[in-house]
Design brief:
Elements: E1 2-4, H1 22-32, E2 34-36, H2 37-60, H3 80-102, H4 113-131, H5 137-147, H6 156-177, H7 180-196, E3 203-209, E4 220-223, E5 228-234
Antiparallel strand pairs: 1-2, 3-5, 4-5
Helix pairs in contact: 1-3, 1-6, 2-5, 3-4, 3-6
Length: about 240
């Protein structure tokens, strides 16, 4: 069963790139306003099973004396409210960085793993001493299940990250509402055209619909999902 917004782009019904974290899969669905319930459940179950298998293998190959901090729990005097919002905001930061570096295609897209990795590292570095830094419901569930120990505050490791993912997707949609991606692409097209134009030529950049500019010579597709083209011309 698929729930799809009429304004959603003509893309696959679900996020099909590799995703080991339910929060990222969830936020991409929210961002696309395009939900496939069947595939969402399949991804979610597979992510939980994969996390449980990984934790079980790690636990089985680690000496019992070294099994410290196996589950996510609040410590160092962290309250439930602070722990919840810590997981909430750190997950929203990670998800927003993920969207901005992977959904906006440009020459630096191949570098996306670096900012995502550094963001994840920074989040764990900051939150480990307070919540044992989950920002991944599958990880929190797997460690508790394999260890057969669920704490009273286990719920914050579910609602916090999922809430943060929704906020990140909403913020990204808010940015797209003002066409920041098209404006950025138009500025880049202007600079490229001016560099290639003859001295004295005045270069103008037009942002038009794809259907209206389908016959334009030299039209450059910038945002196919929004059906926009950016064309350059010499006045």
């Amino acid at each position: 069963m698929c729930l799809r917004s009429e304004n959603s782009s003509a893309r696959p019904c679900f996020f099909t790139s590799p995703s080991e974290e339910p929060t990222l899969s969830h936020e991409v669905q929210v961002k696309e306003r395009n939900v496939c319930i069947g595939k969402a459940v399949m991804y979610f179950v597979c992510q939980l099973l994969g996390a449980c298998l990984g934790v079980a293998m790690a636990r089985g190959t680690t000496p019992h004396s070294e099994q410290i901090g196996q589950i996510n729990y609040l410590h160092n005097g962290e309250s439930i409210a602070r722990g919840f919002f810590l997981e909430f905001w750190l997950t929203s930061i990670l998800c927003f960085v993920y969207l901005m570096t992977t959904e906006e295609r440009n020459k630096s897209s191949f570098m996306a793993p670096l900012p995502i990795g550094f963001t994840l590292f920074s989040c764990h570095l900051f939150a480990t001493r307070y919540t044992n830094s989950s920002i991944n419901p599958a990880r929190a569930f797997a460690t508790s299940l394999v260890s057969r120990r669920f704490t009273d505050e286990h719920w914050i490791y579910w609602f916090g990250p999922f809430g943060g993912g929704i906020v990140a997707a909403a913020l990204y949609i808010f940015f797209c509402y003002f066409d920041f991606d098209i404006v950025t692409a138009a500025n880049k097209a202007q600079l490229r055209a001016e560099a290639a134009a003859a001295p004295g030529d005045i270069v103008k950049v037009d942002v038009v619909s794809a259907s209206a500019a389908s016959s334009s010579i030299g039209g450059l597709a910038i945002n196919p999902s929004a059906e926009t083209l950016i064309t350059t011309r010499v006045a």
